[in-house]
């Protein structure tokens, strides 16, 4: 028998079962062993688990049973199913997201001040459980012009290298800005993107935060 190309990888299925805690991602019912992996409409041949949704057998039937020629009822559409699935994943993994603090600063951990344009970035795990990983990305703007983006290369500030954060642990890294930034009087800001990866390997993307440089005080403030 050949391998069914419509099947998702077993390792990916296990991750999703952990993320939803074996609850249906449509009706939120506890499924136990009555849980199946449905393909999202339009992605029936995909093996990418992002194109699948764990559901109970009843909801699996409902996803595929709608007759588009029948005017009664509202069809389950792909975008709604993705959002409902992610809502359930979030519900059963949010306890795995510890309090994380991070900032752009001119200060070392011992209180000493660094010389601009040497910039410090600090990130700390302020909880007591669980250990997590983080991805960090930065975008640097002078006025409205983006001088450097995390999409431009690789490194600890390019959303492609993990920061390993054990409970109560943190790091302080640094990066250097271009000399023209020092000479300029234009508004300087750094936008920071942080994604936390929990022990079940689910990615929690935090909202980006901007820090603006005050040239007179030689310090940074967070811009809401």
Keywords:
seven-stranded antiparallel beta sheet; disordered N terminus; Immunoglobulin-like; elongated; 4 helices; alpha+beta; 224 residues; three-stranded antiparallel beta sheet; single chain
Q: So, CATH architecture of the largest domain? A: Sandwich
Helical percentage: 10-25%
Which percent band covers the strand fraction?
25-35%
Rg value: 23 Å
Mean pLDDT across all amino acids: 93
The first-level CATH class of the largest domain is given as Mainly Beta
Tally of helical runs: 4
Basic shape: elongated
> How is the biggest beta sheet arranged?
7 strands, antiparallel
Number of strands: 12
Task: Explain what the structure shows.
This protein has 224 residues and is α+β, with helices and mostly antiparallel strands. It folds into two domains: 10-92, no CATH class; 96-223, Immunoglobulin-like, CATH 2.60.40. The chain is 17% helix and 34% strand. Strands 5, 6, 7, 9, 10, 11 and 12 form a seven-stranded antiparallel sheet that branches. It is elongated and about 65 Å long. The N and C termini lie far apart (58 Å). The relative contact order is 0.14.
Break the fold down into its secondary structure elements and pairings.
Elements lengths: L9 H11 L15 E4 L12 E4 L1 H9 L12 H14 L8 E6 L12 E8 L6 E11 L2 E5 L8 E8 L4 E7 L2 H5 L4 E10 L5 E3 L3 E6 L4 E5 L1
Antiparallel strand pairs: 1-2, 3-4, 4-8, 5-6, 5-7, 5-9, 9-10, 9-11, 11-12
């Amino acid at each position: 028998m050949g391998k069914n190309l419509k099947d998702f990888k077993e390792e990916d299925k296990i991750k999703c079962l952990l993320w939803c805690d074996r609850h249906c991602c449509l009706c939120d019912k506890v499924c136990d062993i009555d849980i199946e992996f449905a393909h999202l409409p339009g992605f029936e041949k995909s093996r990418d688990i992002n194109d699948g949704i764990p559901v109970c057998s009843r909801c699996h039937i409902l996803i595929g049973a709608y007759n588009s020629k029948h005017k009664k009822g509202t069809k389950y559409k792909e975008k709604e199913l993705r959002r409902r699935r992610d809502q359930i994943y979030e519900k059963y993994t949010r306890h795995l997201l510890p309090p994380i603090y991070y900032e752009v600063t001119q200060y070392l951990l011992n209180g000493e001040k660094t010389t601009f344009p040497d910039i410090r970035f600090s990130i700390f795990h302020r909880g007591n459980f669980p250990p997590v990983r983080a991805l960090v990305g930065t975008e640097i703007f002078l006025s409205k012009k983006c001088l450097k983006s995390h999409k431009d290369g690789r490194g600890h500030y390019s959303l492609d290298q993990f920061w390993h954060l054990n409970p109560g642990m943190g790091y302080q890294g640094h990066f250097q800005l271009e000399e023209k930034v020092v000479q300029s009087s234009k508004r300087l800001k750094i936008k920071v993107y942080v994604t936390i990866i929990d022990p079940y390997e689910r990615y929690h993307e935090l909202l980006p935060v901007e820090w603006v440089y005050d040239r007179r005080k030689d310090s940074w403030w967070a811009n809401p």
